[in-house]
Amino acid sequence: MAKTAERFAFATFDVLESERIAGPRYSYWKSVFQTFFKRKTAIFWLALLLSLTLMSFIQPLVSGYDPAVAPNINTPSTWYQKPSAEHWFGTDDRGNDLWDVVWSGTRMSLSIAFIAAAINIGVGILVGAVWGYSKRLDPILLAVYNVVSNVPYILRSMMLMYIFGRGFWQMILAMTITGWLSIAFFIRTQVMIIRDREYNLASRCLGTPLKRMVTRNILPYMVSVIATLIYQEIPGLINTETILSYLGIGLPSTYPSLGRMIDVYWSFVDTYPHMIVFPGVVMGLVTISFYVVGQLFADASDPRTHR
Amino acid sequence: MLPKIANKPDEYNDYKFRTWEKLGYIDYMTQQEYAQEVFGADSPNVSQALLRDSSFYEKFRTDLSARGYKVEALPISGYLYATKDVALLTRVFRWYAKLIQIDHPYRIQDPNNPGLKRGYFLTRDWGGGLALAASGTIYKYQIWVDDSFPFFHQNIVRLNMGRSYPTFDGVPVLDVISGGQGRSARREIRTTVRGEEVSFFTSIDEHSLKYKPVLDRLDMNKFEDNYADGNLTTIDPSMLGTSFTIGMYSLLLSLAIGLTVGVIAAMKKDRIFDKITMAYIVFISSIPTLLYIALFARFGMKVLGLPDKFPFLGSQNILSYILPTISLSLGGIAGEALWIRRYMVDQMNADYVKFSRSKGLSQAEVFFKHIVRNALIPIVHSIPMAVIGTLAGALITESFYAVPGMGKMFPSAISDYNNAMIIALTFIFTVVSILAIFLGDILVTFVDPRISLAARKEAR
Predict the structure, then answer these.
(1) How far away is chain A from the Cα of B161, in angstroms, using its nearest Cα?
(2) What CATH number corresponds to the domain at position A161?
(3) Which of the listed residues A14, A89, A193, B132 has the most CB atoms within 10 Å of its CB?
(4) What is the predicted ipTM?
(5) What does the pLDDT look like over A45-84, one tens digit per residue?
(6) Does A274 map to a domain?
(7) A263 CA to chain B: closest CA distance, Å?
(8) With contacts defined as CB-CB under 8 Å, which chain A residues touch B396?
């Protein structure tokens, strides 16, 4: 008997431990990343996306390229050079190294897209979440939405650019002043669908405050919806930037950007195709990688795909 | 215009304020105009009022200040003028107030022509077509029929959206958009004027004939009445017509190709055709519109040998239209294919599909009689919106291919600061899109009998 008492000890009842055993081991974010990284294509596109983004934010710091300064403008031998070991992407019509130009342009376009997307999506989600929940706010915002959304987005941003004038922050303002509305409307509809589900009804009966309902019950449900929004928004905003800059009402000529590059270099497309091929390829890769990574992440963040 | 008067401060000043007044931004009154208003146009007091020591200066100052005008003096001559900013809301109100213009036989009030006949009559135009004409109206031809779309035309109700400035200076905005372009087209006309057979060459479009107060000899040789002021017929279609042609064909193309490709991809899910379709959709929806249009233009030019700028061959050659039309439909093809593929894949496990399969329907019957029919409902709903999509997409396509259409007009109006044009185009695009949403709602009730727009009596 004494031996038994030596070997065994009475366990105390641990509430936390019993919870852990009873519930299945499931962490949402861990499963998201597991599902995401299981696909080789996802890893490939993510690596490409990260390297392109890092490159475009680091390289311009090193090169110090400024479109207002053209040091080789008076040395015609440096103009129109084909790609070589020295100039990987060749040089343009003013002797600038295209490698530098392309990365500063990408940085500019990405910065605009990132800032505008952050504002649009941030404001859109916040307003949309409240909009979907508040029955008093709904008719007012719906009226605003109906009026604004009847004008196509690109027309709206062109009108606003015309009013504000050309420039970096003007462009972001033009993209965001009405850009959040369609996102808010989309979120509103999603919130309305989820709002009246049983678990939310129960939660409301238990007296959960509105803020907690929105942030804890509804928003996590919509991670994949939000991921979808982000991956469509960023290439979309890059698209808007290129259109505005190409039409000559976007960024002024002292800013490098992908849209401006297509605009400026297009006249050389027959004689020096490298000047249009490299910006085009980088632009295509950046937008496609954003789109594909976003799409795969949105798939992975849907709990129904988790095993 | 401006360089000529730039070094004449008085004229420059007057031109500036008159232009702003014409565009509706200010109210403008000169000393002479006010004197004419006070004393009557032909009164000798008017020239008295402009003399240097006249007491009219003080009167002008006090009267117009009282009306809320700002009174200033011209730099050289010292004559006074007064300006008043028009408030934004007033400008909006005035724009709408003069938007709809209705023509009627008492519209023209010409003191030099008191015997002007008033009333409607049936006649034949130069082409021999039947037309309802009128006298006393602004336009001679009120209603007529011809062989150009939409076949039935009228001049009774016309929209007035202001005049274009500084490009197409002075031309009504709608005439810029809907009037022909290019050089004028002359043709021989045989008609009778005052009982005499005449024949002459002209490029006047007789349907646009307007009242002209003073006729010259040439007019007398061609026209019986005072309606002698017409627009010119031109060889190229209008901006509106060009955009409409390209937009409609590209919409048809994107529906035909997009739906076919989407249905095939869904039927062969995860096979090679499906993968290529998905790759195409990702490519088109992710990369900037400009990039794929540019890429396609190079392909069309190098491989197919088509012109990559519209004006190379002009509007008369069908080859000019091919690349812009296909470019415009590339995005639509991706959109339609994505939608119908996703819908069909989702529906393949729906209960009604399983049921119809267990009834013994073949795969093709299940697809085309059940799934596609259901999938088409939202597509029909979105067709009118797609028309607007082509309008907005046409902005970049038309700019890229230099197509003389509405889409190109908008950015060029912006870079030219042509405010009247910008306002009119935004108004048109917006009205068209509202109509399209409305039309979509109506169309869908025809396709789907379950949807009813009328409010039901019984409670849900």
Answers:
(1) 18
(2) 1.10.3720.10
(3) A89
(4) 0.81
(5) 999 999 999 999 998 888 878 777 777 778 788 787 788 8
(6) yes
(7) 10
(8) 243, 246-247
